[in-house]
């Protein structure tokens, strides 16, 4: 397994197009933690889902309708949320924006072979 070993992130790394107005960029990761920037176009959706990872998300730009464990709130720049393992969560982008996601352990499923 390859891990990102560079100690610095300069924002010039490649964006991965996930389709439907969503793309992501890896900041850094190892087997214990991963940080990802996720860019959303207006009305793009991060569908309700769950995973065994702990996830902390910070709203870097924009406005999002966020649902965590059945509770929905509107979050904007400077806000964030925490999703415990195996709790359903998802977002709808109300104003174009970016989320910064941190996961532990890292999201092996995000990496290409």
TrEMBL record:
<protein>
    <submittedName>
        <fullName>Cupin domain-containing protein</fullName>
    </submittedName>
</protein>
<feature type="domain" description="Cupin type-2">
    <location>
        <begin position="37"/>
        <end position="97"/>
    </location>
</feature>
<dbReference type="InterPro" id="IPR025499">
    <property type="entry name" value="KdgF"/>
</dbReference>
<dbReference type="InterPro" id="IPR052535">
    <property type="entry name" value="Bacilysin_H2HPP_isomerase"/>
</dbReference>
<dbReference type="InterPro" id="IPR013096">
    <property type="entry name" value="Cupin_2"/>
</dbReference>
<dbReference type="InterPro" id="IPR014710">
    <property type="entry name" value="RmlC-like_jellyroll"/>
</dbReference>
<dbReference type="Pfam" id="PF07883">
    <property type="entry name" value="Cupin_2"/>
</dbReference>
<dbReference type="InterPro" id="IPR011051">
    <property type="entry name" value="RmlC_Cupin_sf"/>
</dbReference>
């Amino acid at each position: 397994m390859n891990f990102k070993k560079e100690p610095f992130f300069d924002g010039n790394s490649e964006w991965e197009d996930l389709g439907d107005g969503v793309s992501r960029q890896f900041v850094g990761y190892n087997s214990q933690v991963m940080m990802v920037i996720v860019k959303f176009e207006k009305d793009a959706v991060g569908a309700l889902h769950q995973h065994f990872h702990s996830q902390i998300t910070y709203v870097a730009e924009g406005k999002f309708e966020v649902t965590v464990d059945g509770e929905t709130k509107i979050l904007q720049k400077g806000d964030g949320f925490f999703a415990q393992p195996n709790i359903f969560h998802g977002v709808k982008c109300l104003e174009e924006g970016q989320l910064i996601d941190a996961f532990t352990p890292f999201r092996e499923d995000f990496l290409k072979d």
